[in-house]
Amino acid sequence: MQHFDVAVLGAGSGLIISEAALEKGLSCAVVEKGAWGGTCLNRGCIPSKMLVYPADLIREARRGGVGGVTYPEPQIDWAKITRNMQDQIDANIALEKEMDARKGLTTFKGTASFVDGNTLKIQLNSGGSALITADTIIIATGARTRIPEIRGLHETGFKTSESIFGGQFPKAPYESLLIIGGGATGCEFAHIFSAFGSQVTLTALRARLLRRWEPEISQALREGMEALGVTVQTNFNAVSMVREKGLKHVTFQDMSQGGQMTLSAQEVFLAPGIVPNTDMLNLPAAGILTDHRGFVLTNNRLNTNLPHVYAIGDVNGVEALRHKANYEAEVLVDILFGTGKRVANYSATPKAVYTSPQCASVGMTEEEARACGVRPRVAYNRYSDIVAGMAMGYLPGVDDGGFAKIITDESGRLMGAHVIGHQAAALAQPFTWLMNAGGPRQLNDPGSLSPILRSMVIHPSLNELTAWALNNFKDPPPSQPLQ
Fold first, then answer.
1. What is the number of structural domains in the chain?
2. Digit-coded pLDDT (tens) for 398-454
3. In terms of residue numbers, what domain contains 190?
4. Cβ count within 10 A of residue 163
5. Do 322 and 297 belong to one domain?
6. pLDDT tens profile 230-281
């Protein structure tokens, strides 16, 4: 039985921990059953954004006339778009090889489960098993698409982000696509495929899209997507599926109006939320606690109820965002190998949904602020109210193109910022830095980089260009004597 100083379960953001452990000269095991890089690289942020950018270009070209520039109908090179996407996914191969070569690191291709608080049994992909022990264990196993109980689902067939980016990407845009799920993934795929010419229907179980966002954002998103030709149905619960005559037919219960409706499409894409990858970990054997959904319970030091076991990323149920997972990994590196003083703070967690229109948010909604006993002050401004927006063709009373909503308390302390419209992610990110500008005076002198260094940066977004530049400082050259 091999013993390690640190064992990391999952090769996504958990690799930040393993890198730090190796730099300290510690022995480290990484257990991963699938491709390295986690959800973000293989089936999430990165491949989807390789599709969002060309979709955005198509949208911009089609509305160019409002600014006085008319383009021909965009020609789509689907094979090139697919290659660009797959090239990014294939980065996992080089990542795994690079880590395999690291001294002090042992990798296991398989699935880990707890035998007790310090012992793990690894069911190897190649067959057989291995037993290891570790002083410190980090659970970073992520999450996957929740598969709802729909009669006839498996017989009819469907796609998820795991399958569509896992070898089942279509050879051409679907003629028609039915999406079940009104969250970030469902909304982004609706934007992508409708831009590429698919007839898209987007359904949501709840009363609105992006249900945890500001209601005005949700409503504006629905109106914007419908204006682009996406059919949106809310309060729709899928109950059965069948395939007939080359189409997939899904029957929904209309939760608001009553009765049933059947919607048909060439393909069905499931995005009704996620479930944590904890069901194979045998957490009860170690006494590790979860919530009713199976997410691992952690405190602000990323601890589970066992002092030597930690959980980061999607698996702990606090926002399924790669930049949040990376942030937690960085906090945990400090806790395990640094000052030990950092704690996780989620009050300024930014997020973006790359739909058309784009949405971004950080901090509390107005409703959440009121629930905290705050009497919020709320400010709005619309794209059609500023010259830059007017230049893009957003005119008052015609097409306002979106808005910003800023929330403070009565003293002016920033509580939240919410944007829908062109480059929303870039516009919301600075408020994240402002919300991290509190703290000891020595960290926040005018011009200090501290708020940026302590902030999460929306991933993937252009904000990373400047924020990540701060990791690349070089010593200045020696001064030269005056001639």
1. 3
2. 767 899 999 999 999 999 999 999 999 999 999 999 999 875 544 556 677 888 888
3. 153-272
4. 16
5. yes
6. 999 999 999 999 999 999 999 999 999 999 999 999 999 999 999 999 999 9
